[in-house]
């Protein structure tokens, strides 16, 4: 069998994509964050929140909307390595990261 025949039988999984959140997620970061998320729609996404130092309500809304969108699409959006600042804003805002945005605690 030729190489082309072998390769054609492989089932490709959608690529897992990653997004590193910036240090500041304020009002001016909300629209670029939404665009960045939309450009990654259609595949599982890992969102790294390790660098986040400041978070505004608008960016939290964008992330919550993205989590709902990924769920409706049947894809997985995971939040990994949330900084203490990110966790604190989530707590103060009443957002349950483990429920509202899937949080991977293993990393």
Could you characterize what this model shows?
It is built from five helices and six strands. The protein is globular. The protein has a single domain, classed as STAS domain (Transcription Regulator spoIIAA), CATH 3.30.750.24. The termini are far apart. 46% of the residues lie in helices and 17% in strands. The longest helix has 17 residues, at 57-73. Helix 2 (27-38) runs parallel beside helix 3. The chain has 107 residues and is an alpha/beta fold. The strands form two sheets. Strands 1-3-5-6 form a four-stranded parallel sheet. It has helices spanning 3-8, 27-38, 57-73, 84-93, 97-100; strands at residues 17-20, 24-25, 45-48, 54-55, 77-80, 103-104.
How do the strands and helices of this protein lay out in sequence?
Layout: H1 3-8, E1 17-20, E2 24-25, H2 27-38, E3 45-48, E4 54-55, H3 57-73, E5 77-80, H4 84-93, H5 97-100, E6 103-104
Parallel strand pairs: 1-3, 2-4, 3-5, 5-6
Helix pairs in contact: 2-3
